[in-house]
Write a structure and sequence with these properties.
Blueprint (H helix, E strand, L loop, with lengths): L1 H53 L6 H9 L3 E5 L2 E4 H17 L6 H27 L6 H15 L3 H12 L3 H21 L13 H12 L3 E3 L6
Antiparallel strand pairs: 1-2, 1-3
Helix pairs in contact: 2-3, 3-4, 4-7, 5-7
Length: 230
């Protein structure tokens, strides 16, 4: 009787193992399949994102958000990357202005403003490089003071000023602050590298900064990551 029970127990254990191992194998297979599919989807998204920015040169809200999250380069000057988000900051504004003027289908103007926007992004990149080398920073208070000064000189209320910025530049106030910060940064850098000129923040051009910038452009120190028409 005891031997009979032992034989029955062994049969039950053997049957249990037969059910257990296929389930474990199936689980492992599902994990590997899930990982493989996830990697493929990620690769597809990366390829589509790359094509969206560097082949189709998309300027949509989605593309702009992507570049604000990821520090992707649009060009490089003297070893410093010009950020794609900075290029879109200026180019989207230009395109919106052309759109409001009914000129968005004029390819020559679109190309002109595209090149101009890349140049502005390159200027920002070069200013950042020089600022880092010379320990120059621009704090938010300086930016806010400059915007406040412009608002007061225009004699507009805060809401009216924001509306003018939106209607004319198609920027939010945060985007305006970013652009103003870059303007101040270039000017602070110019103070440092050119001691022969008494700069005014508005009237006097950034002589030495522009000279150095143009020298780098004319001597193949700029690399573009999207196609441009020179």
């Amino acid at each position: 009787m005891k031997n009979l029970l032992n034989r029955k127990d062994k049969k039950h254990l053997a049957a249990g193992r037969k059910h257990k191992y296929p389930i474990q194998y199936t689980k492992r297979r599902l994990v590997w399949i899930t990982m493989f599919v996830s990697i493929v989807i990620l690769i597809v998204f990366v390829i589509l994102g790359w094509a969206q920015l560097y082949v189709w040169k998309d300027t949509s809200d989605i593309a702009y958000r992507i570049t604000k999250i990821l520090p992707l380069p649009v060009a490089n000057i003297d070893g410093e990357n010009a950020e794609y988000s900075d290029y879109l900051l200026y180019h989207r504004s230009s395109l919106a202005v052309l759109q409001s003027q009914g000129q968005a289908d004029q390819k020559d103007k679109v190309k002109f403003y595209q090149n101009q926007s890349i140049d502005k992004a390159l200027e920002v990149a070069y200013a950042k490089k020089l600022a880092r080398e010379n320990n120059i920073t621009v704090d938010d208070k300086k930016v806010q003071d400059l915007i406040k000064k412009q608002q007061e000189s225009s004699k507009l209320s805060q809401s009216a000023y924001e509306s003018v910025v939106k209607d004319n530049l198609h920027w939010s106030m945060d985007e305006l602050k970013t652009a103003m910060k870059y303007t101040l940064l270039k000017q602070e850098v110019s103070f440092k590298i050119d001691k022969t000129v008494n700069y005014s923040y508005v009237k006097v051009p950034l002589t030495e900064f522009n000279n150095q910038f143009n020298y780098l452009k004319n001597n193949n120190k700029v690399k573009y990551f999207i196609s441009i028409d020179k």
